[in-house]
């Protein structure tokens, strides 16, 4: 089986790219995440006989021969579980217009351009694949949504040519305008009113920006349109909305920019999210909204140096183990020291990290096995001159509890999540 999928909170560019993939790769099965934007869901409900899709829970990863991912380059945004991410029995293909990413494909078409569908239309036109008016309308919806109707700074000439090509193929602008109009109701109005009441403009590196923290009850959809309207009303270069669920530990960050030099997508990527120059978002757990705002300001200014550095907070000397230490001895060490994990070091070089959660995959008859058999080999480090904010950002992004501190190739200390959080963050109990 070959499948094609995209990111959670599927928008029109993502859906258009999935459907375009079914034309480029005949026989591929379109698979959508469970979370889909409301206007996309409305479009699919009307066109469900034409675009038949599955959800990922209906797919057995053992039967996949090729996985095609579109409009995202990070595993976290796809919603694919470890059994898909860690499986190595299939080819991975990537189509995306965002930079970077942690998906390592066997083949990719990845360029910074207005919309992913533009890249796929390049292939469709070159191979003279026929489009129906419904295809053309959906593809134009994806292109218009991700380029702001060809007005975002990320828009290229190729996006404009692609729009012309779709109009030549009878894309229906009346249908387009109906589904591209996001739902804007009383709940969205209430959030916008609250933001305008507390609006503050700041001048940062020559840009006029506004960061606004809003506490919301339950789920409020289409907050992206609220941020766009907020930016337009204030007439600023960029707006950042930090939305905190009243009874939850998650913050949703949504950003919009109107200037090419202030790439909010890269800022959101640094916070574990993604996007492009004009729009971006991130989901951050267990972090105070005020700390997120400060983090955004640091990323805009490029200033990662604060009065307090990692060297001020790290623990040293480092308690570590060798790669051949038996797992039964490691668990004794962790209990005695009260640690949740320790680095694995060999000849002064970091080999990996072993943590309490690694023991979940250790059977009773494997307790004599060496630590190197179960340690995490994803080695993230930080230098002692960096800020606690940056250390916390790395740990939050990669979901790790400790970060070895490296100087001139040697591990000189370790900073834990709690070390950093007591300075900048307020972690809720796990």
Looking at this protein, list some descriptive labels:
430 residues, alpha/beta, inorganic pyrophosphatase (n-terminal core), Diaminopimelate Epimerase, Chain A, domain 1, CBS-domain, 3 domains, 6-stranded parallel beta sheet, 6-stranded mixed beta sheet, disordered C terminus
Q: Uncertain regions: pLDDT < 50 for 5+ in a row?
A: 303-307, 424-430
**Whole-number tally of structural domains:** 3
Name of the top-level CATH class of the largest domain: Alpha Beta
Secondary-structure class: alpha/beta
Beta content comes to 15-25%
The chain-level mean pLDDT equals 85
Oligomer class? single chain
Identify the overall geometry.
globular
CATH architecture title of the largest domain? Alpha-Beta Complex
Biggest sheet: strands side by side, in what order? 3-2-1-4-5-6
Distance between the termini: 39 Å
Q: Number of helical runs?
A: 16
State the helical fraction: 25-40%
Main sheet summary? 6 strands, parallel
What is the C-alpha radius of gyration, as a whole number of Å? 24 Å
């Amino acid at each position: 089986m070959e499948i094609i999928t995209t990111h959670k909170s599927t928008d029109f560019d993502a859906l258009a790219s999935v459907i375009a993939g079914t034309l480029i790769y005949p026989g591929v099965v379109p698979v959508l995440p469970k979370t889909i934007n409301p206007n996309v869901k409305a479009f699919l409900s009307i066109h469900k006989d034409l675009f038949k899709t599955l959800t990922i829970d209906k797919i057995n990863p053992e039967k996949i021969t090729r996985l095609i991912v579109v409009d995202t380059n990070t595993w976290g945004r796809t919603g694919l579980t470890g059994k898909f991410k860690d499986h190595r029995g299939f080819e991975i293909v990537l189509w995306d217009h965002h930079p970077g990413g942690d998906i390592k494909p066997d083949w990719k078409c990845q360029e910074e351009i207005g919309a992913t569908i533009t890249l796929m239309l390049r292939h469709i036109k070159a191979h003279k694949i026929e489009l129906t008016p419904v295809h053309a309308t959906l593809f134009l919806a994806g292109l218009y949504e991700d380029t702001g109707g060809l007005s975002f700074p990320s828009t290229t000439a190729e996006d404009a040519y692609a729009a012309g090509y779709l109009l030549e193929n009878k894309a229906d602008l009346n249908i387009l305008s109906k589904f591209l109009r996001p739902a804007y109701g009383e709940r969205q109005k209430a959030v916008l009113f609250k933001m305008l009441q507390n609006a503050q403009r700041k001048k940062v590196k020559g840009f006029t920006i506004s960061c606004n923290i809003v506490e919301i009850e339950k789920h409020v959809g289409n907050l992206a349109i609220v941020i766009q309207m907020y930016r337009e009303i204030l007439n600023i270069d960029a707006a950042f909305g930090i939305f905190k669920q009243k009874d939850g530990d998650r913050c949703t960050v949504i950003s919009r920019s109107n200037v090419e030099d202030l790439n909010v997508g890269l800022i959101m990527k640094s916070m574990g999210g993604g996007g492009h120059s004009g729009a971006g978002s991130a989901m951050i757990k267990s972090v105070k909204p005020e700390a997120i705002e400060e983090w955004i300001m640091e990323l805009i200014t490029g200033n990662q140096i604060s009065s307090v550095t990692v060297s001020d907070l790290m623990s040293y000397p480092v308690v570590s183990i060798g790669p051949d230490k038996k797992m039964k001895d490691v668990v004794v060490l962790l209990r005695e020291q009260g640690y949740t994990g320790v680095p694995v070091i060999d000849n002064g070089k970091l080999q990996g990290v072993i943590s309490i959660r690694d023991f979940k995959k250790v059977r009773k008859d494997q307790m004599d096995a060496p630590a190197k058999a179960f340690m995490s080999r994803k080695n993230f480090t930080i230098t002692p001159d960096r800020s606690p904010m940056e250390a916390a950002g790395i740990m939050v992004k990669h979901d790790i509890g400790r970060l070895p501190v490296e100087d001139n190739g040697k591990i000189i200390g370790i900073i834990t999540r709690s070390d950093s959080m007591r300075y900048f963050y307020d972690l809720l109990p796990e």
